Amino acid sequence: MSVPDWARAHGAPLFDALIRREAADFDVTEDLGFEFSGDGEHDYLFIEKTGQNTEWISRQLARHAAVPARDVGYSGLKDRHAVTRQWFSVPRWNVPDWGALELEGVCLLRQERHHRKLRRGSHKANLFRLVLHGEAPASELLEDRLQRIDAAGVPNYFGEQRFGRNGANVTLADAWSEGRRLPRHKRSLAISTARSYLFNQFLDERVRDESWNRLLPGDVANLDGTGSVFIVDDLDEELQRRCGEMDVHPAGPLWGEGTTLTPTAPGHENWLKALTDARVKAASRSLRLRVGTLKWSIATDRVELSFRLGRGAYATSVLREIAAISQ
After folding, report:
1. What is the pLDDT of residue 264?
2. Which candidate, 252, 187, 183, places its Cα nearest to that of 216?
3. pTM of the entire structure?
4. CA-CA distance, 281 to 295, in Å (whole number)?
5. Is 283 inside a domain boundary?
6. Longest dimension (CA), the chain
């Protein structure tokens, strides 16, 4: 099943671009955003990896430390076809010698101690350095587009990778909603896919009516950089000003039990019922994504970008507002 080409906020792509021509073209560094205690039963390892996935490294660290794989912690999955740096926590019950760690494509950059295991989704942000290969348009067009993204942000879509190759995860979500029994990890994937798709469809409509970046009466508002939300009962000038300054953002629903808004994706009514029956807790997600510390360098055959995105955001949501991306 193909995934829709969700509406763009800043206009059509300006050029065709290739990313990941080599691993160094997609460079990601994780920012945990908290200080280490300096003691405790967990070693925190800051690891640079190339050509390896996060889960594989987690298993190798567990083997090296002679601990169960479930006790190794990491905050998020990082791309395999990239150069990425992220933190892992490993229990130091057996006092592992991390200096003896040898894994292909892996380099240990830093080691710390902390009193708690690293949990999923606990990092604050990711720093991206990306190279887009392609015949760039006139520099003034690209400069204008990048300046608008810097000032106004982009729609906070879930990235295409959430939906699998050729939309395979959407097909899985359909099967789950129709009652097919799935292994736990595939059931979890089906649920996250359904919620992500419905959110993107909701956001797509807000982009089309140009309300993705402004608050409407009755909206849920999200405080920038946090998970805090509140209902917009009174849309006064102060709240409008804060939204204009990107201190608060309109938020859309992540469907589940208690969601009151009608799904905006025809043909997926089964998903909402299945999410409710599964007692999935409703949540929300900002419709707008702030693109922090955006910098760029433009050449005739490539564009280099660097920027900072909060936890849960996708770099592809930024790139699709600039170019038609192929990998």
Report:
1. 57
2. 252
3. 0.91
4. 38
5. yes
6. 60
Query: Residue 139: inside a domain, yes or no?
Result: no
- Give the CATH number, domain containing residue 183: 3.30.2340.10
Cα Rg, the chain, nearest whole Å: 21
Number of other residues whose CB lies within 10 A of the CB of residue 110: 11
Q: Which two tokens stand for residue 115?
A: 């009193």
- Number of structural domains (the chain) is 2
User: Which residue among the candidates 79, 144, 150, 224 is catalytic per the annotation?
Assistant: 79
- Please report the pLDDT score of residue 272 as a whole number: 87
- The DSSP annotation for 153-185 comes to -EE-PPPGGGG-GGGHHHHHHHHHHTT----HH
Q: Please tell me the predicted confidence (pLDDT) of residue 263.
A: 53
Domain-located, residue 305: no
Any idea what the CATH number is for the domain that residue 38 is in?
Answer: 3.30.2350.20
Host domain of residue 248? 154-289
Give every residue of the chain whose pLDDT is below 70, as ranges.
1, 260-267
Structure tokens at 268: 């997926």
Residue 236 annotated as catalytic: no
